[in-house]
From TrEMBL:
Listed EC numbers: 1.5.1.5, 3.5.4.9
The organism of origin for this protein: Bifidobacterium longum
Sites where the protein binds NADP(+): G168, R169, G170, V236
Catalyzed reaction equations: (6R)-5,10-methylene-5,6,7,8-tetrahydrofolate + NADP(+) = (6R)-5,10-methenyltetrahydrofolate + NADPH; (6R)-5,10-methenyltetrahydrofolate + H2O = (6R)-10-formyltetrahydrofolate + H(+)
Lineage: Bacteria, Bacillati, Actinomycetota, Actinomycetes, Bifidobacteriales
The protein, known as: Bifunctional protein FolD
GO molecular function, a single term: methenyltetrahydrofolate cyclohydrolase activity
Length: 291
């Protein structure tokens, strides 16, 4: 029987622990606060930001919300970032992406105070991750790859010496998870695959673990994996369900793979809840470092 790696259950346990740590901080007069900057009214972004603030309420973190219209200028957005940098009620914050067309997202991310970078995606923090192959890291870590590693650790899946095939080279996880997997404490061997990879199926069939983050629904099929592989599904695609008459979220891993795998993350309900939990963890850790 394959093991279902339940992200909802593990994330709930993490949030319980974070709530206790927030209570201890409050007893010392320190109130953690998560800020969000939302530009425009994209339904997906609005829902995602609302979920983050619901999580904050659950663990006792203050919500600091900033919203701008879709026609906000680069200078308007930059001013809002500076305000969050300077706001003492905001321990850490995120700029919800994507930003409206024509706005230089990297330039905006560069303006975030690295010490308040709740997503762990500021160039300074990514640079610290590159440099620290060994030992502890005292800067925020990227939420999604951190969530994946925490999830596998919770299920006692040892990655030492394992072959990990990462599908997709996006900055959210594809380009960053390799940095974390190859740290001395994890010690995995990583192959990063993308649209230029030759004989992609051969790489996948050799892998002990596949991290699928392509955004291509059902791309990973049973013929492309070996028996007993661990499957981590990070892909998100909106696929129209004709029978139900509506769109559904589907991952990169075909469900037909589950019987062949030793363990897998469902999608939804796997990595997604862990990403949100790691965002909260980053904020609490920032407050603890400040304390």
């Amino acid at each position: 029987m394959s093991t279902i790696i339940d992200g909802k259950r593990i994330a709930a346990g993490i949030k319980t622990d974070l709530a206790e740590r927030v209570s201890r901080l409050k007893a010392r007069g320190i109130q953690p606060g998560l800020g969000t900057l939302l530009v425009g009214s994209d339904p997906g972004s609005m829902k995602y930001v609302a979920g983050k603030h619901a999580d904050c309420q659950e663990v006792g973190i203050t919500s600091v919300k900033k919203e701008l219209p879709a026609d906000a200028s680069f200078d308007d957005i930059a001013a809002a970032v500076r305000e969050l940098n300077e706001d003492p009620a905001c321990t850490g914050f995120i700029v919800q992406l994507p930003l409206p067309k024509g706005i230089n997202e990297n330039a905006i991310i560069d303006m975030i105070d690295p010490a308040k970078d709740a997503d762990g995606m500021h160039p300074y923090n990514l640079g610290e991750l590159v440099l620290h192959v060994r030992g502890d890291i005292s800067t925020p870590l990227p939420c999604t790859p951190r969530g994946v590693l925490e999830l596998l650790h919770a299920y006692d899946i040892d990655l030492n010496g394992k072959e990990v095939c990462v599908l997709g080279r996006g900055i959210t996880i594809g380009r960053t998870i390799g940095l974390m997997l190859t740290r001395n404490a994890v010690n995995a061997t990583v192959t990063l695959c993308h649209t230029g990879t030759r004989d992609l199926s051969a790489h996948m069939r050799r892998a002990d673990v596949i991290v699928a983050a392509m955004g291509s629904a059902g791309f990973v099929t049973p013929d492309k994996i070996k028996d007993g592989a661990v499957l981590v599904d990070v892909g998100v695609s909106r696929v129209y369900d004709e029978e139900a008459g509506r769109y559904r979220i589907k991952g990169d891993v075909d469900k037909a793979c589950y019987d062949k795998a030793s363990a897998y993350t469902p999608n939804p309900g796997g990595v997604g809840p862990m990403t949100r939990a790691m965002l909260l963890a980053n904020v609490v850790e920032m407050a603890e470092r400040h304390a």
